[in-house]
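Per your request, structure below.
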């Protein structure tokens, strides 16, 4: 059975600004494309989450969907992408969902 990964990237930055499209494009070119060169889909979205104080917050987000190729290092590649985003853009977390899927192109 094939698997699909969804990565959930918030675009809100620590200083209250928002990650620019140029910064996002650079991240995709450096971190996503080399690891999954056969392709993926990027979706603009708005995320909602509850912070530690209980307040509900909204922010623009990017969802990346990848039909995983089934390589032994898929998980390591996803972890590297998550770690890079958190480090480069000072994020506390990046959502990662991996689910079984029936994939056909």
């Amino acid at each position: 059975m094939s698997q699909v990964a969804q990565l959930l990237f918030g675009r809100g930055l620590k200083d209250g600004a928002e990650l620019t499209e140029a910064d996002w494009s650079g991240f995709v070119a450096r971190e996503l494309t080399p690891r999954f060169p056969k392709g993926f889909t990027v979706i603009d979205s708005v995320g909602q989450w509850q912070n530690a104080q209980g307040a509900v917050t909204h922010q623009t987000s990017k969802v990346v969907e990848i039909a995983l190729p089934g390589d032994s290092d898929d998980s390591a590649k996803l972890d590297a992408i998550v770690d890079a985003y958190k480090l480069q853009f000072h994020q506390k977390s990046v959502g990662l969902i991996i689910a079984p899927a029936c994939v056909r192109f």
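The chain is about 25% helix and 35% strand.

Regards,
D.
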